[in-house]
Amino acid sequence: MEKKLIAGHELKPGKNITDHVHVEGTELHVPHVLICGKNEGPTVLITAGIHNAEYVGIQAAIELSNEFEPDDINGNIIIVPLANRSGFENRTMSTVYEDGKNLNRVFPGNADGSEADRLAHMLFEIFIKNADAYIDLHSGDGYENLIPYAYYLGESPVAETSKKMIDCVNTEYYVRSCCRTGGAYNIASVHGIPSVLIERGELGLYSRAEIEADKADVRNILTFLGVLPGKYHTYPKQALCEHSDDAPFTGCWYPEKKAGEHFKKGEKLGEIRDYFGRSLFTEFAPEDGIMIHQCSSLNIIQNGPMVTYGVPIED
Predict the structure, then answer these.
(1) Is the pTM here over 0.85, yes or no?
(2) Could you give all domains of the chain from N- to C-terminal order, each with its CATH number?
(3) What angle do CA 207, 211, 212 make, to 5 degrees?
(4) Which residues, other chains included, contact 301 with Cβ-Cβ below 8 Å and sequence gap of 6+?
(5) 1 pLDDT band (50/70/90 cuts)?
(6) CA–CA gap between residue 218 and residue 60 (Å, rounded)
(7) pLDDT, tens digit (0-9, with 9 covering 90-100), for 276-311
């Protein structure tokens, strides 16, 4: 059998490895844990902290890395609990500290680019490409109000398996994405690696209930994939077609809805005002929908996130 190497480590049955991998051409080092089961099976990658202020997934991944035992595993579990470490340590929220780029917009990366490009390239080449399935954990960033939901990529060679992974996630909603560029799970799916992105938590906060819910979803998916023993559960959920509107102005933002609230076509969703309280822009609902996530900070930035809503569809 051909040896499987990840980050310079041979995956041997029963092995448990904790290490950092250096991103060539930068000062970045990324923590990772390799848990090698005693029995054969798939290699599943779990990442968190691609957006470094999305703390629910980060803490869930840290805890899971200490809870899995090789004796209980078929195959291998690879955990990258904090992909954007420099952003975390400098509290930059969505971006890599050194170059200000959103890491989840530059996959599969570039070995000759700036820090975010090189980091994405390393994560893709060393971890994502060596996985048989992939789970990416996200939350609402420091300024984002958000409901729990999940994504998978439709129209991909692994859409059927990815959808079955989505069925194992305990949320009320999911999005069948059409985006094939930039994001880690999107690129993984395009390259034939079944992948899902789970969103849970908001506003740069984290709670024990949310962490445990993330951990339960990961374990359930791993059971479906045959990595963990036992029976997996599926959860019925509503498919949503996602729509996002960015802010046309910088100023003060006054949302009218909360994540999870339904609205009708023509309802006011929010308003941007200047620093004298004068209206610059009012966002009205172009159709019936549900708010998935939105900016909830007073400040809003031109061309930055404002509202993302979903329209129920049949998948």
Answers:
(1) yes
(2) 5-224 (3.40.630.10), 241-313 (2.40.50.100)
(3) 115
(4) 247, 250
(5) very low
(6) 9
(7) 999 999 999 999 999 999 999 999 999 999 999 999
